[in-house]
Specification:
This protein is mainly beta. The protein is built from 3 helices and 13 strands; from the N terminus they run βαβββββαβαββββββ. It has helices at 9-12, 87-91, 115-118, and strands at 5-8, 22-32, 37-42, 55-58, 63-73, 76-81, 96-101, 122-125, 130-139, 144-149, 155-159, 165-169, 174-177. It starts with a strand and ends in a 12-residue tail after the last strand.
Length: 189
Amino acid sequence: MVRKKIISAEVSGSPIFGEPEYLVVGYLRRSHGLRGEMIMEIYTDFPERLKPSTEVYIGDSRQKLVISGTRYHQEGIIIKFQGLETPERAAAYRNQHVYVKSADRPVLPKGQFYHHELIGFDVVTESGEPIGRLSEIVQTGANDVYVVRRADGKEILLPVIASVIIAIDVEIRKINIRPIPGLLDDLGD
């Protein structure tokens, strides 16, 4: 079974436009063991940066905690924070997102983008016909899928493959696409 992750402005911590202050890197599930450790689902492509002495921010209040240790466990990691020495103390943080400061993120190679950077981009065909605005990115395992919201509220699902997504221009916040035949036929105008 492939687990789907949905990246939207609400989950990423990103406003519709502009650079977010925080980026979500994981989700704390529950306490683990007797030493205050927790099981964390990983959302980041860079889990190696979650190492001892790294500052992270928990929940909507962005409470700062410092990682004291991590180890891989099944599909996530077991994480330990400084000052949380019992399962009861750790349990207070369960079911909350874990964030890092946006300024601390690794730099990506040219032509690669963080998902939050693309949310809100205008989507147009290669001939310039407006399609809508990128509202969400669904990670399916095989390839990502862009959810594009049209002005009339209808949604279009675009597979993120080279034959469909032909250009991304960060400076003008635009994604150029070559629609698959039939993709836009049933939307009406």
